[in-house]
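User: Second chain of the day. Same drill as before.
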Amino acid sequence: MGVWVDAALRLNLAFADAAASEFKAAARAVAFGDDPDAARAEINDWFRSETGGLVDNLLTEGSVDGTTAVVLANSLYFNGYWYNPFFPRLTQDGDFHVSPDHAVEASRLLRDLGLDLPFRPAADSSAMLLGSPHQEMAVSSVLHQCFVNVNEKGTVAAAGTVGSIMGCAMPDDHIVDFVADHPFLFFIMEGGSGLVVFAGQVVNPLLH
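Assistant: Same format as last time:
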């Protein structure tokens, strides 16, 4: 997790301590007011570093400006291999049946997934900022970007708001056909607790 605060504001030390102890997040001062583009570049660099370059340019031009007071960021990265890898020579493209009467040609690789969900609830900023001129601060936007790549070797997943792989432990001489030719849900779960780390759906691979 990362916290970026405009240099003109005073961060509540209790909030900074909680962020550091509970989320291993260091609060950084940036000049949203004087140089928002430099601040945006710093945050995007953090996402690239935390996700191995998979989450890139989450904050687009104009997403932060002189009115931005605080940016809270979170990232998640997962790289796992199948217990029994698939044979690339047996993997092939095919039709993906979006509905019983409609099919599209689909690549065997999943594509980037994205979500942009803006909302404006009222918020009390006193727990985060001291003596802030933004007494009626509100959440202006929440951006989320997720990347999931599934291939014959395994799965790479990364998310920015910014597991255990479900494989078949069959004997080597037992070949199982995995055919993803219709809409499906997928989950990446942590084996010990069963906690869902990533969840997604593919309805039409040409639209993702």
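The CA atoms of residues 22 and 205 lie 38 Å apart.

User: Great, on to the next one.
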